[in-house]
Amino acid sequence: MASRSLGTRAGYGLLYAVLAAAAVIQLLPLVWLLFFSLKNNQEVFNLPPLALPAELRWENYANVWNQGNISRYFINSVWMTVLSVLLTILLASFVTFAITRMRWKLSPLVLGVFMVGLMIPVHSTLIPLFSMFQKLSLTDSPASIVLSYTAFNLPITIMILLGFYQSLPHEVEEAAVMDGCSINRLFFSVILPMTASVIVTAAIINMIYNWNEFIFVNTFISTDELKTLTVGVQNFVGQYTTDWGAIGATLMISILPILLIFFVLSNRIVEGIAAGSVKG
Amino acid sequence: MHKVMSNPKMIALYVLPSLLLILGIIYVPIILTGYYGLMQWDGVSPMTFIGLENYKTLLQDAAFGNSMLHSFLFAVLSTLSLSVYMLIALVLSGQIKGANLLRKIYLIPMLLSSVAIAQLWLKIYHPSSGILNSFLEALGVEETPDWLADPDIVLTALFVPILWQYAGFYILIYYAALKNIPSSLIEAARIDGANSLQIALRIKLPLAAEVIKVTVVLAVVGSLKYFDLIYVMTDGGPNGASEVMASYMYSKAFRSFDFGYASAIGFFLLIVCLVMTWGIRRLTATKDTIEYS
C-alpha cells in the first residue's frame, strides 16, 4: 500500500469524497428532522436550518406523547408487530420443516404456491380483502391486520428459512427418530433450537415490514383506538400541520425503535435484507 | 424412519394452517379481484355483471393512461439509477476502509416507514421554510420553486425521496454479490495484467449478472407498486400530475366507491407485474449457470 503513487492516492481521495457525500445526503434529512423536533415554530422559521436552539425543547416529545394518541398508536404497533412476527415465524418454520425434511409428493407444488405469493402486489388483493373482512365483521379488528401481515410475510420468511433448513444435516433427525422421538418433539426440541440464528434474522425483517406497514391499517381500521403508528402519525400530522416541533417529535418517536434496533443489530439486519432481497 | 417422516396427518398439521391462510388472504382475493373487475359495484349495493366494460373504460380513461405513464416513468428511472448503485458498490467492494460503516449508513432510510419519509420530505420541500429552499435562498436563488405544487416538477420531486429511500438497499445487495466473488478469480486476472476497470467489466459484472437481473425486476415491479409515499405527499396531485396506478386504484375504490372499476385496475396491475417479472427474467435469461467451487 505504501508504494501507491500520488495519482492513485488522489483518486482514492476523490472516491472517498464521493462516498462520504453520499453518506451525508443519506443522513442529513434525518439530522434536520432531529433538530426541528427540538425547536418551536419561531426557532424553526428564524434560525438557520442546521442550527439548534439555545435550549433544546425535549418537552415537544413529552407533549405529543401525552396529548395526542401517540402512546396508544405506539402500543398497538408494538403488540400487532410482535404477534404477527411470532405467528409468521412459527407457521413458516412448520412449513419449511415439512417441505425440507418430510417426504411427500406435493411438497414442490406447495413450495411453489408460497413462492408465487412473493410476486403478488398487495394492492390487487385490497378490495376483496376489505369486503371479505367486512362480511366476517373483521374490519376494525386487529385480527384483519395480524392475519394480513402473517399471510403476506409467510413467503419471504419461508424463503429466508429454506436455505438454512436445507443445510441442516439429516443425521440429526435420523438419530432422533431412531431413539423413538415423535415428529413434534423432533421439531420443537431439536430442529427449532438449531435454527435460532436464522429465525432472528427473519424476525427482524418481519418486524421492519410490519412496523412500517401502512395500507392495510389505513384501509381496514377506522377506529382511532386501533390504529398503528404509521397511520396514526399520518393523521396526527394532518391535524397539526403548523406545529413543526410537534410533527418532528412525532416522526422521531415513530422511527426511533427501528433506529435503536439498527444500532444494536445492524449486522443481522444487513444480512437479513440481503437474504430477503426478493421482496421489494 | 421413512414412515415417521411421511406421516400424512403430521404433514397436513404442519402445512395446512399456513396454506389455508395464504389461499384465503392472497389467492382467493386475487381471483375475486378479477371477478369484481367484471362488475359494476359500489361496494354496498348488489353487483351487476357488465362483462369487460370496466376494461374498455380503462383503455379510454386518460387519467388512468397518465397514471400508468407515471408508473412506467418511475420504473425506467429506478432501473437507470441501478447503474449508479452498482458503481458505488463496485467502489465499496474494493479495498476501501470503512466500507462496512458506509453501506450501513446508506441503508438507514430504507428501514423507515414510507409515511415518516413522506412527512419528512414534505417538510424538506416546504416552499418557504423547507431546508431545500432555505439552501437555495442562501445561494441567492430568488424565485424558489414550490416543488410539489408545480405539475412540471412534481414527479422529479417525488422521485428524489424514492432514490433516497432505496439507494442503500440496492447498494447492499450489489455489495453482497460482489463480495461473494472468490478473490482467487480477481487475483488471477490481476496477475494476467488486467486493470481495475477490466476486472470490473469483464469479471465482476458478468458474475453479478444473476443479482442484477433480480434487482431490475425489483426496481420495475417495485415502481409499479409505489403507493404510500405518493399517497401521503401529493395524493396524486396537483390535478393528477403525480397519480400512479396504485394511487389511482385506491382513490377509485375508497374515495369514489367505484369498487368494480378499481378492481379492474387492481387486476390489470397484477397482470402487468407478473408479465414484467416474467418478461425481464425471460429477456435476460442466461444459458450457463456460473458455479464457483
TrEMBL record, chain B:
PROSITE patterns: ABC_TM1. GO terms for cellular component: plasma membrane. Residues 68-280 form the ABC transmembrane type-1 domain. Keywords: Cell membrane, Membrane, Transmembrane, Transmembrane helix, Transport. The keyword Transmembrane applies. CDD domains: TM_PBP2. It is a multi-pass membrane protein. SUPFAM superfamilies: MetI-like. The keyword Glycoprotein does not apply. It comes from the Bacteria. It is found in: Cell membrane. Belongs to the binding-protein-dependent transport system permease family. This is Binding-protein-dependent transport systems inner membrane component.
